[in-house]
Amino acid sequence: MSEHRSRAPEPDQRPEVGPPAREDHVLLAADGLVMDFPGTRAVDEVSLTVRSGTTFGLVGESGCGKSTLTSLLLGLLRPTAGTVRFRGTELTRLRGRELRQQRRHMQVVLQDPVGSLNRRKSVAQIIGLPLAVHGAGDVTARRRRVDELLELVGLPTSYASRRPTELSGGQCQRVSIARAIALHPDLVVLDEAVSAIDVATQAQILNLLRSLQAELGLTYLFVSHDLAVVRYMAPEIAVMHRGRIIEQAPRDELFAHPREEYTRTLIDAIPRVPARAAAPESREATS
């Protein structure tokens, strides 16, 4: 699908979501991350901290290093230098089973809502796969959990028997979100999670994510090229450019007093249109 620029509601038109972060509760911390590939440095001395129960926004244009940084934070790549600590454990030192155990507590929602799902599997099989892999309950308990998750993301339980090809893009992304939260993760990485769906559906998915965060106490790392969407979702925003975080600040401060010219360019690129805040959607919505 083609990309659509978001016109997300202004952040002050919705209450903050999620429990207040405890100053001593750091869930994810990166220190001096470097990632070199032949002929290029994709990530250059990046440090950041994500506190439990909050949303941390990471914004930058395509090719700035966001995806590589995300892979480092998830332990999918080993950095050239630097460390990643998750739940107090240094991921960069783990191997095999120990690393897989930590990954259970971090899940990802990807950009392509259709392509990220196995078209040969039913919705119940897709959502239930993490439960089966980690031995969470018996078959009956897992099916009950699948139904609970469908209701949480606003899909009828009758959709359990459908396949991704029978669903819209927004419905597929709801399935992806249900799969991501199935194991009660501490961290959900949202990697361009709404960039491939239309603007109206984007608003519904963003409101769903905020509602789930409030209800379940989730922590989000929200990664996007779209500063308007990041502004709506994240109280703390880091701007990435050419492999480095060039600016990081609370949302209101960043927009009121951007220090970097690149940040000002991103802000200026946001369409100046009246924004209408959408009320939190009903869980019966299925778009």
TrEMBL record:
GO BP terms: namely:
transmembrane transport
> What is the protein name for this chain?
ABC transporter domain-containing protein
Show the InterPro entries listed in the entry. AAA+_ATPase (IPR003593), ABC_transp_ATP-bind (IPR050319), ABC_transporter-like_ATP-bd (IPR003439), ABC_transporter-like_CS (IPR017871), P-loop_NTPase (IPR027417)
* Region feature Disordered, mapped onto this chain: 1-21
What organism, scientifically named, is this protein from? Actinocatenispora comari
Lineage, uppermost ranks: Bacteria, Bacillati, Actinomycetota, Actinomycetes, Micromonosporales
Reply yes or no: does the keyword ATP-binding apply: yes
Record-level Gene Ontology MF annotations: ATP binding; ATP hydrolysis activity
Alphabetical UniProt keywords = ATP-binding, Nucleotide-binding, Transport
The similarity annotation says:
Belongs to the ABC transporter superfamily.
Question: Where does the record place the ABC transporter domain?
Answer: 28-267
| PROSITE patterns in UniProt | ABC_TRANSPORTER_1 (PS00211), ABC_TRANSPORTER_2 (PS50893)
Record-linked PANTHER family: D,D-DIPEPTIDE TRANSPORT ATP-BINDING PROTEIN DDPF-RELATED (PTHR43776:SF7), TRANSPORT ATP-BINDING PROTEIN (PTHR43776)
